[in-house]
Amino acid sequence: MAERRGSDKVRVRVLRQDAFDRKDTRRWEEFEVARGERATVLSALRAIQRAPRTVDGRAVAPVAWETPCLEHACGVCTMLVNGVVGQACTSLLDVVAPKGRVSLAPLGKFPLVRDLWVDRQRMTDDVKRVRAFVGYDGATDALRESPAAQAERLLLASCTSCGACLEACPQYHQNGAYVGAAAINQARLVGLHEGGALDRGARLDALMGDGGIASCGKAQNCVEVCPQGIPLTESLGSVARDTSKRLLFGWLLGARR
Ligand code: SF4
After folding, report:
1. Distance in angstroms (rounded) separating the CA atoms of residues 30 and 65
2. Which of 42, 134, 146, 234 is least enclosed by beta carbons within 10 angstroms?
3. What is the number of the ligand 1 atom nearest to the C-alpha of 158?
């Protein structure tokens, strides 16, 4: 059979489940959409949403997924496209469905809400766990940051909490302790802030705890899949060096600094 590249139709297989506690409803459903010029997985999902009918003619409930920004800014449309982590808004059908077929599934490392929609709350919880926030009240009045210091932080601060780095990480598991590259990058970012530096000792102690930096297996998958191009392996290395110094010399500085 001839390749379907250039065909005006694409078959979209979607792994569906009606609710987090309804594994009995897990199933694949197949839809057909027009390819369209520069069409993406996101535009295919929107077409399915407008007319949710499977290829065998059954009217079904619209597919659920998160899609607030539509333009590669928020990260929440991250899912498995042909089994590989990707974002619906930037996955061109010409690239991911050259033969006229593509499969979509939810991220597997987060609790499922419904269909392609997952709950990333744990990412926020893990940021809190490693104290990757500026706890200093009134920092903007008292602290002066150079443009160079701000520029260094800009790329690290572009994380959208999409979860791609965690999905790709062999050490990160839904019920495991490891916080993963996103939280550790956030800890590095906060440590570069003058206000965040005030809390440095407690943050490093948290990063040396259960599920912290020692759990990184150095697979480096995280940096390969990050859609923001954040140098995650640099962040992991930087935090590993800081925690090693803390372990060796922290007693010289006192318990909390
Ligand atoms: S570090 Fe990159 S891949 Fe990980 S959550 Fe942030 S934007 Fe997504």
Report:
1. 16
2. 146
3. 7
